[in-house]
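Example 3.2
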Amino acid sequence: MNPSYEIRPERVAQRDVFGTTLVELIDQDPRVFVLDGDLANSTKADIVARQRPEHFLQMGIAEQNMMGVAAGMASCGLIPWLSSFAVFLVNRDLDQVRVVVAQPGLNVKIAGSYTGLLTGKTGKTHQDISDISVMRAMPGMTVLVPADGVETHSAMIAASAHEGPVYLRLTRDPQPLIFDAAHENDPDHGFRIGKARILREGDDITFIATGEQSVRALQAAQLLDADGISAYVLHVPTIKPLDVDAIIAAAHTGMVITGEDHTIIGGLGSAVAETLSEHLPTRILRMGIDDVFGESAENDDLLEKHQLTPYHMAAAAKRMLGATGSSHP
C-alpha cells in the first residue's frame, strides 16, 4: 500500500535546506567540503561559511577553476560540493564538467541553485531551464530533482553517499511540502536514487512530474476530483538513472501528462516519451517551457504564462479525456 500524500501548509525553500544539510554532511563526514562561486548568500552556502568555516572555500567568480579544484579534491579522496547558480555550473562550466569530472567519473557533487523560472526576478541571463537536458545527456552523471524541502534533505544525504558525479537541481523560493521527514527512511516509500514515487493512485489519466512541478501535479489531481476524474500522480526525483518500470506502470491509464519547470526539449517529458515509445506506446502531452528563454516577473505570472499552474494541468487532463469546461476559477 502506497502512503497518501497531501499538500502541507508549511512552505520551505530548498536553498535553506541546502545550507543546513551541508553542515550536517560535514559533521557526518569530514571529507565533505563546500566550494562557492561568490553566491553563498543566495544559495545559502553562507550557513556553512558561518558555522563550519574550515570546510568552506570561497572560489570567487571563477566557476571553471572551481570545477577543476573540485576534481582535484575528489581525486584525493575528498567529497567536494559545488555551490552556485545552475546557469553557471552547467553552462559556463560545461567543458570542465565533461572533461575533468564526468569522463573520469570523479566524486563531485554539483548543486545547481536558482533553477527553472522562479528565481526572484533574476531574468533570462541567470535562469536555467535546460539544465536537466544537458546533465541528463552527460555520461555517468546522476541527476536528482527533489520536489520539496524534505526530499531535498534526503536527496543530499543520498548524493553525498553515492560514489560518482551527481547533479542536484535546486529552486529558490519557499514552496509547499508533500513529504514527511519521519517517513524518508522507509525502504519502500522513502527517497532512493533511481526510484520514482507514487503520490496518488488513479485510473483515468496519469501525471508524471518532477521537482516542484510534482506538487502542482498533485494539486491538479485534487482539482480533478471535483469532476469525478481519478488521476494517478508519479513523482520522478531521479531523472537519471530513470525508473523505467515505474513509468511503464504509471501509463496504465492510457493517457500521460508530463510536467516540469524546464524546457520540454530533452527533460523529463522527453525521457518519458522515449521510455513509453520503446516499451508501451501511449498518448502523451508534455507540459513545460516551450523552447523560449525565461524572463523576470512574479512567480504566479510566470506559471500562468507558461501554463504550469495546477489549473492548467487539470484543464489539459480534461481536454485529453474529452471533457468540457475548465477547472480554473
